[in-house]
Write a structure and sequence with these properties.
Blueprint: H1 2-23, H2 30-50, H3 56-77, H4 85-104
């Protein structure tokens, strides 16, 4: 469970860095550029940590999907882009895929040590 929580926090940070990157105006604005760097590092470290207990493909797919959903949600909420019926349907498809991956996830077995 801790790996999933870590993964979801990392996905939130992915949305933070994506929106900070847009706000940085090509890295010409200091505060959003700094937020981008910090959030990118924290998000990637969280993803790497989550991959200790979640298969790589599942972890990456969930990380990018949740990050995408939150990035679009923020853009729609701030009026930067419209939410169309087609876009909403496609986003719901992403949610369905993420839930499906979580339901199919099997915990990793501990790898035997080299000393064993």
């Amino acid at each position: 469970m801790k790996y999933w929580v870590t993964l979801l926090v990392s996905a939130v940070l992915e949305a933070v860095w994506a929106n900070a990157l847009a706000a940085s105006d090509g890295f010409t604005r200091l505060a959003p550029s700094a937020l981008f760097v910090v959030a990118t590092i924290a998000s990637t470290v969280g993803l790497a940590t989550a991959m200790r207990g979640i298969p790589t493909g599942t972890a990456y797919a969930v990380w990018t999907s949740v990050g995408t959903l939150l990035t679009v949600a923020y853009s729609v909420a701030t009026g930067a882009e419209p939410l169309t019926c087609v876009k909403a349907a496609l986003l719901l498809g992403i949610v369905g895929c993420v839930v499906g991956l979580k339901l199919l996830d099997q915990p990793r077995r501990e790898r035997p040590s080299a000393e064993a």
